[in-house]
Structure prediction request, 70 residues.
Amino acid sequence: MTQARAWAWRKSSRSVQTDNCVEVACTGTGIRVRDSKRRRDAVIAPSPAAWTSFLRAVDDPSSASRTEAR
Prediction:
């Protein structure tokens, strides 16, 4: 079994009805992201700062420009 298969992958509850989804796994050392349709392809490992910035932008799109300005 590959490491990526051992992680507990989660998909947003809002993604259930569409095929355009990503899955996220907390690995203990960071976050991993993959395309839910192409699970065997590359896994992205964003830095903690990039992940935090992404989550802020999703929660409040106007915060993205403020985060980038820092």
The first strand starts at residue 9 and ends at 11. The mean pLDDT is 78. The beta strands are 9-11, 22-26, 31-35.
